[in-house]
Amino acid sequence: MQILDPKALFHWADYLVLALTLGISLLVGLYYGCFGTKQKTDLEYLLANRQMKTIPVAISLIAGFISGITLLGTPADIYSYGTQYFAIVIGIFFMAFAISYLYIPVFVNLGVRSSFEYLNVRFNDNAVRTLSAVIFLLDAILTIPLYVYVPCLALEQVTGYPRNWIALIVMIVTVTYTTLGGLKAVIWTDAIQMVIFCLPLIIIAVLGTIAVGGWHVVWEEAAKGGRLEFFNMNPSPFERTSFFAAIIGGFFHWTGYNAVNQTCVQRYLSVPTLRAARTTAYIFMVGVIGIITFCTYIGLVMFAYFRDCDPLAAHLVATSDQIVPLFVMKVEEGLHGLPGLFMAGVLSAALSSISVALNSSAGVVLDDLYRPFIKNDISELKGAIFAKVACVILGVLCTGLTMAMSGLQYMIQVAMTLMGIAAGTQFGITSLGMFNPYANWKGALTGGIASLVVMGWISVGNEIMSIEGRLNYPALPVNVSGCVPPLAPVVMPTMDPTVLPIYKLSFLYVALCGWIIVMVVGSVVSLMTGSTDVDALDSNTLTPPVAKWHRKRQASRKAASLSSERLDRISISTLSVTGNYKQA
């Protein structure tokens, strides 16, 4: 559905801004691929020889996890459901410290190249490593098209060009600079793209505030419309968004992705020291909180702007995710280039997420799904070539899936479902290895499979109920009194009371539930099948607090053993002396 005549929306200046965004990213990739060090080893291609600077890596982390979905979806969510989701920033704050002190030290001290290699070191078995790597790869293959599809849908809306052609151009550019430039190109283009998608957020927030009459009007209208909710203390896990879901569920959701997901671990390992890796996590936390804050405020500004006529009820947009582009075109009308700048920001956020996922996935194919199964390891140069070929193949596959997405009504739901399942399972398996020294590979494998099955059942059931219209989370009331022509009052959908409660589980708790299943099932199965020999375990494979206990335990046992040996020697000496005395 077109919200306005495309010719009235995009000026040539807007197209120029979009072209520059794609062109700059492509040039960075060409530079590192053709004029830089040319990525002669896979270590350089995938980890930049572990010599990257802290600031660009931190910016890359922010850019990689702030996608077009965030820029379009978060304001729309605040517009529809209020500010309770904003409490997730508290969970994100604690996430940074959990990552810095519980997870990053393990990867850095072991010197591994991926979170999946850690699993092989810890459990001494390729089965767990392969399972986690396959989950990650499938998750990436299905979510990359989602990252592409969302901004292309918005661009189709404001340009009139078919989304498939836009998607093809976007993927060609992204795959080219990611393949040629490797991690260095990805990180530096992320830094540039970060500026491109942050600038429009500030401009939109300022122009929107001016358009509605000031920030006090924004606050007043949000209060009158019931959008200011920060302390919904309903403890039910079936509440869509509550204070507890945002903080506890949000903590596990974000930590699950950012502590053990290879796209993040790869960046932590690209800096030279543990201190630098921790610093990147703190900067990442501050940046993400800042962007979510801006997106939340823009959601409130949109509500104040459309306070008299909800665009969804007025059929100006087909879905709530299209409210943001409509709002941008309204407040920036006549300001040529600014609408293009905003769309460039959305596109940049997508490019950064796509390139991060492609680069990490290529590394996983090489290090975790190919090298462990060949007898003779390939050279570093051949490894770099292999990773580049894998990047191209994955890019082509994801491009095809993006094309198919426009024809498959429910593919987006499938992709989003897999994201939650994958995060909880991977987080649980890695945490089991780090926090439970008695866990063995059988427990980790069984726990991982159990998490996949149970959370898959819940998530797929949730999506089926939603598709059938039986599972609805009614949005907050909207006003249509100012619409022209007049509209009837909006009737909000209701929840089908026959839906099983388990299918109503908040999306914020999916990762937490997956984590709990792996930890419980994995621990029980490990006890039943013979726990790991704790004395033979490397302390570096355990999270620092548990590693400290493990070292004390080993030192105590060693001291006891030495003491026992001394007593044995003394006893032998005493017996010898006694025997000699008797003989005398």
TrEMBL record:
The keyword Membrane applies. It is a multi-pass membrane protein. It is found in: Cell membrane. It comes from the Eukaryota. It holds the Pfam family SSF. The keyword Ion transport applies. One of its GO terms (biological process) is sodium ion transport. PANTHER family: GH19970P-RELATED, SODIUM-COUPLED MONOCARBOXYLATE TRANSPORTER. This is Sodium-coupled monocarboxylate transporter 1-like. The gene is LOC117645417.
